[in-house]
Design brief:
With about 120 residues, this protein is of the alpha+beta class. It has 6 helices and 2 strands, in the order ααααββαα. Strand 1 and strand 2 form a beta hairpin. It is globular and about 50 Å long.
């Protein structure tokens, strides 16, 4: 159901995990890759591959941390920021439609359960 709604309201330019990464970068610009992965609920291997794809697409900028050459610091490119903002209304609509059948008091517990399940599911 989520995939169908996502396709209808957000489109195919961004997957939900990619949106989560871009959204995390907007709230934490210059964060290291591990932190962004935690914010987006992605494991280390998935995050590394996803960042490489987002960098190749020109949506994310990656640079080495000058104080620790082992860490990558990430930020949104202008194109990434534009795509994030253009997708935001569609994402909000998907969330609204998914939560609509629930009572308002059930929204936060449902979101927490979905986030927990997302951490268990493999991400493409």
């Amino acid at each position: 159901m989520h995939t169908k709604l996502w396709s209808e309201h957000v489109g195919s330019e961004l997957t939900a995990p990619q949106f989560a990464v871009l959204d995390a970068l907007e709230s934490e610009p210059g964060a290291d890759q591990r932190t962004v992965g935690e914010l987006a609920s992605l494991d280390k291997a998935t995050m590394a591959e996803m960042v490489s794809r987002l960098v190749r697409r020109g949506l994310v900028l990656r640079r080495r941390d000058p104080s620790d050459g082992r860490r990558n610091l990430l930020s949104l490119s202008p194109t990434g920021q534009e795509l994030l903002h253009s997708a935001a209304a569609g994402v909000a609509e998907v969330e609204r439609l998914l939560l609509e059948p629930l009572d308002p008091a059930e929204h936060q517990p449902a979101i927490a359960l979905l986030a927990k399940a997302a951490r268990l599911a493999p991400v493409a």
